[in-house]
Write a structure and sequence with these properties.
By secondary structure, this protein is mostly helical. Helices cover 51% and strands 6% of the residues. Strands 1-3-2 form a 3-stranded mixed sheet. Strands 4-5 form a two-stranded antiparallel ribbon. A hairpin with a 5-residue loop joins strand 4 and strand 5. It is globular and about 50 Å long. It binds zinc ion (ZN).
Length: 315
């Protein structure tokens, strides 16, 4: 079944885009982004750092520099050409063979080893990284946070979380709230329009960084294959995202209408959109590292818990 789904996605990827096609990204085209009306950047970073501590409690990070350094390097390159180049970003690899990625306000970006294993070219990995960077650029986590604050009386989740942002309190209540923020997916799970906006911003980001726009189309094809109906309730690269068919179509319309088949590379020379992208040595080393990395979750995918004895009935 998986093979047929993948072939169907590939067939879709080859479908031509007509010139007058409506473009779902048009509504984002003239957006500008800032912290105005949300919280200061300093408080945003503090909020992200607080939730990051919860990420460290919940997930195991990969420390092998053969894997982490190329991801950091690629991430920093994309961050510099993003719509928010002056924020200090940090890129982490989570030891989890399920295919996922997510980000936190303040520039904390996470990629599962499962996603690194899935990407077959540097521009594909760049697409996933740029999508997560875009959530930070567009302050999607912060906007969800503010919305949740407004309804906190209704749901009673965020009483202490508000203090993290407004007073920098790192007391027990705030830590509890940060944990709830993560568990409830409040700042990591987004609606479809935020996801479309992140796809739009991410596509332009990879092109500005000198990558092939088509890399994003290929990445969506691979995600569709890996996704195969699974849900990620905590948020991440699949949760509430438009389906792969739509994401591929949106990307192709944008390439046809606004990237015009050619893009300026980092050198300023026009480059063909498409063709075979070159991988840097770092990407190839990262792939080799991931393929030999013994994931703690290989026998228990998606849970990020160490393997536990399981009581089995005799047949
Ligand atoms: Zn997303």
């Amino acid at each position: 079944v998986r093979v047929w789904i993948f072939l169907a996605v590939l067939a879709l990827a080859a479908a031509p885009v007509s010139a007058g096609e409506s473009n779902r990204y048009d509504k984002f085209r003239n957006e500008t982004y800032s912290n105005d009306g949300l919280m200061s950047e300093r408080d945003e970073i503090r909020l992200g750092a607080e939730v990051h501590r919860q990420v460290l409690q919940k997930y195991r990070l990969v420390t092998d520099p053969a894997i982490t350094a190329p991801v950091q390097e690629l991430g920093q390159r994309l961050a510099r050409t993003s719509g928010r180049p002056n924020l200090a970003y940090t890129f982490y690899v989570i030891d989890d063979s399920s295919v996922n990625a997510f980000s936190l306000p303040g520039g904390f970006i996470y990629m599962n080893t499962g996603l690194l294993a899935l990407a077959q070219a540097e521009d594909e990995l760049a697409s996933a990284l740029a999508h997560e960077i875009a959530h930070v650029v567009a302050r999607h986590g912060l906007r969800n946070y503010k919305k949740a604050q407004r309804t906190a009386l209704l749901f009673g989740i965020l009483g202490a979380g508000a203090e993290v942002a407004t007073r920098g309190s790192l007391g027990g209540r705030a830590i509890g709230a940060a944990s709830q923020l993560l568990a409830a997916g409040i700042i990591t799970r987004f609606g479809r329009d935020f996801e479309r906006e992140a796809d739009y911003l991410g596509l332009h980001n990879i092109v500005h960084a000198g990558y092939e726009a088509e890399g994003m189309v290929r990445m969506f094809g691979r995600l569709a294959q890996a996704h195969n109906g699974k849900k990620t309730p905590g948020g991440g690269i699949f949760a509430s995202h438009p389906d792969a068919k739509e994401r591929i179509h949106n990307t192709q319309v944008e390439i046809a209408q606004h990237l015009n088949g050619t893009v300026a590379g980092v050198s300023g020379r026009p480059r063909r959109v498409g063709g075979t992208p070159g991988n840097s040595g770092g990407f190839d080393r990262m792939k080799a590292g991931v393929s030999t990395h013994r994931s703690s979750t290989a026998t228990n995918p998606g849970t990020n818990q160490p393997e536990r004895p399981v009581l089995r009935r005799r047949p």
